[in-house]
Amino acid sequence: METAHLSLASLIRNLEVRSPLSEEDCQAILHLPYKIRVLEPASYIVGEGDPPQRSCVLLTGLAYRQKLTGDGARQIVALHLPGEGVDFQNLLLGVSDHNVQMLTQGVIAEISRSAFLEVMAERPAVMRAIMLSTLVDASISREWVLNVGRRCARSRISHLLCEFASRQQQAGLAEKGCSELPMTQEQLADATGLTPVHVNRILKSLERDGLILRSRRTLSFPDWYRLQEVADFNRRYLHFTDGMDQSERALLVA
Length: 254
Prior knowledge:
Blueprint: H1 9-16, H2 23-30, E1 34-39, E2 44-46, E3 54-60, E4 63-68, E5 74-80, E6 99-102, E7 106-112, H3 113-122, H4 124-150, H5 153-170, E8 178-180, H6 185-192, H7 196-208, E9 213-215, E10 218-220, H8 224-231, H9 246-249
Helix pairs in contact: 3-4, 5-7, 5-8, 6-7
């Protein structure tokens, strides 16, 4: 995989979605020393119980947070897109309390925790942007608890599809009206507290009802408004600053 062209520019784009940065702030981020790692699907970025020595930014590919019960059952608790910091909360915590794994093949930038903290201390706008990023992570986590705890199975799956499509469109990572979802039915089940068989049944019903179209790992949305209603989906918890902008309108298929 070619990595020579990769930089922390995608992190800056992600942070500026919710918090403005000056040119000097951006340059400070771009000049952070980092190490590139190419990872295969299922590779661990962060391991539960590890003392964090560096912070990781996802440059390409997709990743997910997960926790395991004592008997090994997995719950996926968040998804991560390129440009996102997958463990900003570990900048201040002494031990990681969950795992982060690659969903697809991808590339991460490893930045020493001390270097990151130094830039944050010197540049208040960078500190604010990182804090907002971790607060949005917490907001998404609350929505996922509600999703698994109180929504019906059909709404749970629909809500996950709506969230992932909205985040991809906002980040400029999807073509008009389409969204990539490279998750197996087992992984979707672990993210929604369902069984793979139940997930398969729901996906077929959503497709039969004209709410989604599937082509390999790509989804399109013939009736985006109706899918949001089924999902009980409201973008408020994602804290985009632009309301229904061009990225969301791109999900509407004529």
